[in-house]
Structures are given as structure tokens and as C-alpha cells.
């Protein structure tokens, strides 16, 4: 089974950015833990701060992988293009957010990804990625 985690803008700052919301761990360190815990799964990771690169990656893997875990971060609430990319691919997508987006600013309550996602996991911290992997298994 091949699963990719795609993270959007500013998630490269995990471990440094607002640790009270996002924690103290870098995603790279957490990804090593995921790979160890789910060693029966081929896990891949991609992060970009650039909307078009995220769309290109969805196009690249969206017909050949078994699952996509997408935390589009702020693009969740602004990118019709990423929403359309999720709609246009065959691979199921689980939308993940580290924080509870519904307990934050009102503009974060809208998702252009959600209507085309297989599921949504919010508010469980980094554990949300693990829950998403388990949903594919």
C-alpha cells in the first residue's frame, strides 16, 4: 500500500511555529515515527508553500497511490484549484488538520477540499495523520 502525506504552507515550521497550537515536534521527526509504526505501508511525504506545486503533486500521485493525506493548511480555505484537483483524481483523500479549525477564526470553517474528501480529521494534533493512515488500512 502506497500512501502520501501532502502538507501545505507553513507546515515546514512545525516545531517552531505556535507550539501551543501545533506542538514542539518537527514534521520530519514525526514522519520517522509514522514510518516506523506503519512499516507495512510505503509512506511518502511532500510539503510545499506553493499552491501549484501541491496541485501538481496531487495530479502526479492521484491515479497510482492507494491514499492521500492532505493538510492543505491555509489553502484549505482559499484554494478552489486544490479542491478541483482533489475532485479530479481517483485516489481517495483524507483531509487532516492539526488544530480544530472549527474552534478558530470563522474563515477557517470553510473547506474547498471537504466536499471531495473521503473523510476529514481535525483537532487531534499530529495524531490525526496516524488516524488517517489507519483509515486506509
UniProtKB/TrEMBL annotation:
<comment type="subunit">
    <text>Homododecamer.</text>
</comment>
<feature type="binding site">
    <location>
        <position position="71"/>
    </location>
    <ligand>
        <name>substrate</name>
    </ligand>
</feature>
<dbReference type="GO" id="GO:0009423">
    <property type="term" value="P:chorismate biosynthetic process"/>
</dbReference>
<feature type="binding site">
    <location>
        <position position="77"/>
    </location>
    <ligand>
        <name>substrate</name>
    </ligand>
</feature>
<feature type="binding site">
    <location>
        <position position="84"/>
    </location>
    <ligand>
        <name>substrate</name>
    </ligand>
</feature>
<protein>
    <recommendedName>
        <fullName>3-dehydroquinate dehydratase</fullName>
        <ecNumber>4.2.1.10</ecNumber>
    </recommendedName>
</protein>
<feature type="binding site">
    <location>
        <begin position="98"/>
        <end position="99"/>
    </location>
    <ligand>
        <name>substrate</name>
    </ligand>
</feature>
<dbReference type="GO" id="GO:0019631">
    <property type="term" value="P:quinate catabolic process"/>
</dbReference>
<dbReference type="GO" id="GO:0003855">
    <property type="term" value="F:3-dehydroquinate dehydratase activity"/>
</dbReference>
<comment type="similarity">
    <text>Belongs to the type-II 3-dehydroquinase family.</text>
</comment>
<comment type="pathway">
    <text>Metabolic intermediate biosynthesis; chorismate biosynthesis; chorismate from D-erythrose 4-phosphate and phosphoenolpyruvate: step 3/7.</text>
</comment>
<dbReference type="InterPro" id="IPR001874">
    <property type="entry name" value="DHquinase_II"/>
</dbReference>
<dbReference type="Pfam" id="PF01220">
    <property type="entry name" value="DHquinase_II"/>
</dbReference>
<keyword id="KW-0456">Lyase</keyword>
<feature type="binding site">
    <location>
        <position position="108"/>
    </location>
    <ligand>
        <name>substrate</name>
    </ligand>
</feature>
<dbReference type="GO" id="GO:0008652">
    <property type="term" value="P:amino acid biosynthetic process"/>
</dbReference>
<dbReference type="InterPro" id="IPR036441">
    <property type="entry name" value="DHquinase_II_sf"/>
</dbReference>
<feature type="site" description="Transition state stabilizer">
    <location>
        <position position="17"/>
    </location>
</feature>
<comment type="function">
    <text>Catalyzes a trans-dehydration via an enolate intermediate.</text>
</comment>
<dbReference type="InterPro" id="IPR018509">
    <property type="entry name" value="DHquinase_II_CS"/>
</dbReference>
<feature type="active site" description="Proton acceptor">
    <location>
        <position position="22"/>
    </location>
</feature>
<dbReference type="GO" id="GO:0009073">
    <property type="term" value="P:aromatic amino acid family biosynthetic process"/>
</dbReference>
<keyword id="KW-0028">Amino-acid biosynthesis</keyword>
<keyword id="KW-0057">Aromatic amino acid biosynthesis</keyword>
<feature type="active site" description="Proton donor">
    <location>
        <position position="97"/>
    </location>
</feature>
